[in-house]
Design brief:
Layout lengths: L3 E4 L2 E4 L4 E4 L1 E5 L2 E6 L9 E4 L4 E4 L1 E6 L12 H10 L2 E6 L10 H14 L3 E4 L15 H7 L3 E3 L8 H13 L3 E4 L4 H4 L4 E2 L2 H6 L3 E2 L1 H18 L3 E3 L5 H12 L4 E5 L27 H12 L5 E2 L8 H4 L16 H11 L4 H16 L14 E11 L18 E11 L2 E5 L15
């Protein structure tokens, strides 16, 4: 394995407190040196990071890679390709595969597929319940031994409160967080978008904010009694943010993530039955978006995750009520998140913390910092390059995005995993480049 020198960039590493002009040298898969310009030595490969931020490798803790079982939507390989193209050095994939990842055998299968891909690191998340049926606990210990980093029935809420209690207690024995998809199905009913004026105008059944908030309140109450670690997936409402903020103030071990679509779009994106804006939880109203952004700014929201959910065209090109939930996100997540820095007062350290440092801590995986001796996972981010979203150029197998043709700013120029360059962007020829000095 050769060495790599990343020079000319601005290192942003909240974990070590570095923010400034440093060169980074990678050798034998690890960070070998971080030094003032010209002081990190030479290397076999050099990356010019002028005008870029050099950060710990981005980690997306909530994606769906669909393999095994739904390879027509995505595979571990294509998902990993999309990940590195989006600047992610690691992803954690949910258990709603076919068969469900509720045994050590399925976990090992995913781990082996990821090893064969040799791109982004892929960390499987095991199911909480057998078959995601919400009836009895899956073999958490067996899956832990095989390589899972958390447990979740994501996509299906755990309606049985007693099962959720046992999940919190049992997963704590293995040091795992329970990632909760918060949705009271009785309240959500047959809703297919947010309960609000847009659903009323379109004649669609709505999902009230209370369907999410009631479950968040229940799970925080359980956490307070059981201990363990609760991570709330894709928070979408102001009420959820308020509940988490108050739980943290009481010292509970609760963390929460937000997705780029929930802090970028409102329910208005559904427009005239656009199925690419159908997701679960649904897009909410302006006050909810503003609450999520405020919570990102003040650190109440711990992590940004894409909830990358690939679907075949035939699963979206149907009536809105029948369309599958979810959008692809790995290749637009970074640019949409950088808008928080430019437009909403989120500082770059907070953003890097939410996209790298804290996901590593929650999952208990390597990465999240550029300290000498740590694994050589690095993302080089050009914060100023302008580009247009063309779903046909996605590395993901699927194209379901509401951001098609959007003009975005910021992109990964290079993604390095274990000291190897896994993605390097071709300098755009037509895009207008407005270089501004990176802080």
């Amino acid at each position: 394995m050769g060495s790599v020198l990343i020079s000319g960039g601005t290192v942003v590493d909240p974990a070590t407190g570095r923010h400034g002009a440093f060169d980074v040298r990678l050798e034998e898969g690890r960070i070998a040196a971080v030094a003032e310009p010209g002081g990190a030595g030479n290397a076999d490969v050099q990356i010019d990071a002028s005008g870029c931020w050099v950060t710990p490798g981005l980690i997306d803790m909530h994606v769906h890679l669909r393999e095994p079982g739904y390879e027509y939507k995505e595979t571990v390989l294509t998902g990993a390709q999309a990940a590195v193209a989006g600047g992610f050095t690691a992803v954690a994939c949910m258990a709603n595969t076919n068969p469900v990842n509720d045994t050590g055998a399925v976990t090992k299968y995913i781990v082996e597929k990821a090893a064969a891909a040799r791109l982004a690191r892929v960390y499987p998340i095991g199911a909480v319940s057998v078959g995601l049926q919400g009836e009895r606990l899956a073999e958490i210990g067996e899956m832990r031994e095989a390589g899972i980093v958390a447990v979740s029935d994501d996509g299906k809420p755990i309606m049985d409160s007693a099962l959720m209690r046992r999940a919190l207690e049992y997963s704590a024995m293995f040091g795992l967080a329970v990632i909760a998809h918060e949705e009271d199905r009785a309240l959500a009913g047959e809703g297919c978008m947010n309960e609000g004026p847009t659903a009323f105008r379109l004649g669609l059944k709505g999902m009230p904010a209370a369907a999410e908030e009631a479950m968040v309140a229940r799970d925080i109450a359980l956490l307070e009694r059981t201990g363990g670690r609760l991570h709330i997936a894709h928070a979408s409402t102001a009420g959820t943010i308020d509940l988490v903020r108050r739980a943290k103030a009481r010292g509970l071990a609760v963390t929460v993530e937000a997705t780029p679509h929930h802090f970028t779009l409102t329910e208005d994106a559904v427009g005239e039955y656009d199925t690419n804006a159908k997701m679960n939880p649904p897009l909410r109203q302006r006050q909810d978006v503003e609450a999520v952004i405020a919570a990102l700014r003040d650190g109440t929201v711990d992590a940004i995750a894409s909830d990358h959910a690939p679907h075949h065209r035939d699963e979206k090109d149907v009536e809105f009520e029948c369309a599958a939930h979810g959008i692809v996100g790995l290749e637009t997540s970074l640019a949409l998140s950088l808008a928080l820095v430019r437009e909403h007062g989120v500082d770059i350290e907070t953003l890097v913390r939410a996209m790298s440092v804290t996901p590593a801590r929650i999952l208990g995986v390597p990465g999240g910092n550029l300290a000498v001796g740590e694994i050589g996972d690095v993302t080089v981010i050009d914060p100023a390059v302008a580009w247009e979203v063309d779903p046909d150029r996605f590395h993901s197998k699927s194209r379901n995005t509401p951001f098609a043709n959007w003009a975005l700013t910021g992109q990964a120029r290079a993604t390095l995993v274990g000291g190897e360059v896994k993605w390097q962007a071709i300098p755009p020829l037509a895009a207008a480049r407005k270089r501004s000095a990176a802080r």
